Amino acid sequence: MSDISLSSVPRAPAHPRLIPRLFGAEPRFAALGLLLALAMIPTTLAMTLDPRQFQAEAIWLKPLKFELALSLYLLSLAFFARFLPPGMTDGRGYRIFAGVVIFCVLAEMAWIGGAAMFGTASHFNLTDPVMGAIYGLMGLFAVTLTSASLVYGIAIWRHPAGLPDPALRLSVALGLGLTFVLTVLVAGYMAGQPGHLVGTPVTGAKVPLMGWSREVGDLRLPHFLATHAMHVIPLVGLLAGRMRSSRLAIWSVWAVSAGFVALTLGSFALAIMGLPAFAL
């Protein structure tokens, strides 16, 4: 049997995997996003072992929701980072900005987790002067961490080589930008209210799983829609890119984006008027 050199053996082509690509594009956000996802395990365990409730909900439910939401947000940014201009994430200014965003995320989770540990409210807790002061500071932190989506949206729009397909690039830029604009609008209004409900529920009827009120206005619905613009609109752009006409694809992205904004603002208006988006 003749010897076969290793160099003559065909090698399987290297296919990039999702996790390495996430870490390679933006390792900071990817690492923290995965850490928050893993943190959901002990939080779920705490919710199982700790029977305490606050305002008819398990006290560890809010930290669990925020771990999920912020994990998805950070991992999404890490995914979109591959379309940023080359060298942007290595710049000193960007590294400082990313560090500030990470600090804000950690501060938010420490605040929410701490409130759960002590069995009190993190949000809308205006009766406690200390928690009230922290609440205002956390609002500033929330705007700061959300601004990363706007920065990404603008940078990707200005870098056509990152996403050559015009419809897809438009959808990613719009989705990221609208996430910031709509979230700040809805969350900013909600922060000035005594709670996320507009009205007083009688039966406590809620939308399954999501928990939105089916009796009164609930500001959490438009807030949910606003934060997911960065997922919905780029998906539309991905589908529209399959069209033969690039002009039709671009107009489709604009039309769906306008519809999504109308849906978010419509649900926001209903909530402000005290009307449920999902009636009994």
Structural class by sheet pairing and helices: mainly alpha
List unreliable stretches of 5+ residues.
1-15
Average pLDDT for all residues: 87
Q: Helix count? A: 9
Strand residue content: under 5%
| Straight-line N-to-C gap | 79 Å
Biggest sheet, strands in spatial order? 1-2
- The backbone outline, from C-alpha atoms, is globular
Give the % helix: 55-70%
Beta-strand segment tally: 4
Which features characterize this protein?
2 domains, 9 helices, 3% strand, single chain, two-stranded antiparallel sheet, 280 residues
Summarize the structure.
With 280 residues, the chain is mainly alpha-helical.
Mind explaining what this structure looks like?
With 280 residues, the chain is mainly α. The chain has two domains: 138 residues, no CATH class; 118 residues, no CATH class. The protein contains nine helices and four strands; from the N terminus they run ααββααααββααα. The strands form two sheets. It has a two-stranded antiparallel ribbon with strand order 1-2. A two-stranded antiparallel sheet has the order 3-4. Strand 1 and strand 2 form a beta hairpin. The radius of gyration is 22 Å and the shape is globular. The N terminus is likely disordered.
